Amino acid sequence: MALLYGSLAYMAGILIGRAIFDWLGMRCPLPEWLWLAPFGLLPLVLFLQRRNEATMGAGMRWPTSAGFEPPRPSAAPGLLWALALCAAAGALRYAGHPFTPCWTPADLAYYNLPADRAFERSAPKMTLFGFVDSYPLVADVKQRLVIHVHALEIDGVQRAVAGKVRLSTGIRERYRYGQPVRVTGRLTTPPDFDSFSFREYLARKGIHSVLYGAVIEPM
Questions:
Q1: Average pLDDT in the 197-204 region?
Q2: pLDDT digit string (tens) for 134-151?
Q3: 5, 50, 109, 126: which could join 208 in a potential S-S bond, CB 3.0 to 4.6 Å?
Q4: Secondary structure (DSSP) of 155-187
Q5: Pfam families, alphabetically (predicted)?
Q6: Full-prediction pTM beyond 0.85?
Q7: Averaging pLDDT over each range in 69-83, 99-113, 123-137, which range is the top one?
Q8: Among 79, 97, 82, CA closest to 34
Q9: What whole-number distance in Å separates Cα of residue 88 and Cα of residue 36?
Q10: Cα dihedral angle (92, 98, 102, 105), rounded to 10 degrees?
Q11: Facing residues of 165 across strands?
């Protein structure tokens, strides 16, 4: 039962950590290893709890036949501390792996346009170099691809980057998994809708960019 409580506290900590991360306006994640620190204190909490139980000795007996009403059992202090540490670990876990990492010029998503410019014809287009990183998903007259990008072109100069981009294109040309390609289009941040966060949905798959108006050239 303690393991179940600890797991629930850990998941609650992730939600709390996300709320605090957004409320503070933090942009860059904390060190990834930091969430392990609270777990390192769990053995100490268990040791102190055992020591406290040993010093208290046997509990008092409350015979109901004599009219006594036994006190209601309360949560042990050690359990409460353990749950607090699990919640802290969950909060630090999210702070070390937020949905929106701290982008640098070496990341593809660093060059994203805002989501509200996705359908702006005047928005600047970006040329990306990479390979097809998923099996094409064909539906009606469209096919959806994920491209693993290793370079982009800015002002005629190629820069090394790392990241994945999702795009849709027609079915006239077919592409295969692992095929090198050059794609051009409007690189934007995935949008958030009223009842669904497309950005977070793709983030769980390691994708932080989408490409609109894509033109694909096999290499």
A1: 86
A2: 888 888 888 999 999 999
A3: 109
A4: TTEEEEEEEEEEEEEESSS---TT-EEEEEEEE
A5: DUF4131
A6: no
A7: 123-137
A8: 97
A9: 10
A10: 140
A11: 147, 209
Q: How far is CA 130 from CA 68, 107, 118, 170, 180, in A?
A: 77, 14, 21, 19, 6
Question: What is the model's pLDDT at position 60?
Answer: 57
| % of the chain at pLDDT higher than 90 | 27
Position of tokens 């989408």? 210
Q: For residue 36, what are its two tokens?
A: 């392990």
* Residue 203, token pair as written in the block: 């983030």
pLDDT of residue 59: 56
CATH 2.40.50.140-classified regions of the chain: 108-218
Q: How confident is the model at residue 70 (pLDDT cuts 50, 70, 90)?
A: low
Which structure tokens are listed for 183?
């794609």
Residue 140: strand, helix, or coil:
coil
What is the DSSP secondary structure assignment for residue 58, as one 8-state letter?
S
Please state, as a whole number, how many other Cβ atoms lie within 10 Å of the Cβ of residue 146: 20
Beta-bridge partner residues of 142: 139, 170
Nearest partner of 206 among 100, 132, 127, judged by Cα: 100
CA distance 118 to 59: 68
